[in-house]
Amino acid sequence: MKQPLIIALDFSSINDVQQFLMPFQQESLFVKVGMELFYKEGLSIISALKEQNHQIFLDLKLHDIPNTVKQGMKSLASLEVDLVNVHAAGGMNMMQAAVEGLDLGTAAGKKRPDCIAVTQLTSTSDEMLKEQQLITHSMQEVVTHYAALAKKSGLDGVVCSTHEVPSIRKAAGEDFLTVTPGIRMGTDSVDDQVRVATPQLAREYGSSAIVVGRSITKAKDPLKAYYEMLQQWKGERITR
Ligand code: C5P
After folding, report:
1. Number of domains in the chain
2. Where is substrate annotated to bind (predicted)?
């Protein structure tokens, strides 16, 4: 993965996706397929996106007992997507089982999908952590601890907010992936996200990849919004 901007395809049908992707025909994108789209369209959306040469983050956030996650990941590996994820709250045995499942399901000669762990959702606030999860440590401590567990379990990185990237980098090293959603341009609506940041801050803090949904998918001109985001993210002028 080389500093990608991952577009979250949070649509409910393959038709909506194809319509959205129409202006991007010249682009080879890194896209994220989440629950809404995958539960509706299943394997057909994965093959359609692969045919268009897009890289795929299949964001299903597995969180179950280790054996179930292992078998689930074995099945997902056979889809030959690039990136998958689990919830770190499932524990180290579960995370190790996820990697084992991916290894088992990856065909000989193919690259196993990278696997990252969701630390705390970017829609979770400090108050929610304390009042709803009864966690008294700070968000930073919790997320950094989860990142260390994910690394020990053999995962390739974590999903976290931009604000936690520097301490995760310190704890887990430069090669450990930090994939950051909750990305907004200064003027965009925050929606249901809480721990948000601009693409520029994500670059300055050293995120490995940013995930952008509504700021692009709901923009009047999605291609223009994509290029504006990309430019801020890469910190260089990008000509179309
Ligand atoms: O529209 P928006 O840019 O907020 O979309 C962010 C995307 O990233 C959504 O698809 C959401 O499911 C996903 N995500 C997130 N926070 C996480 C993990 C995934 O927002 N911790």
Report:
1. 1
2. 10, 32, 59-68, 122, 184, 193, 213-214
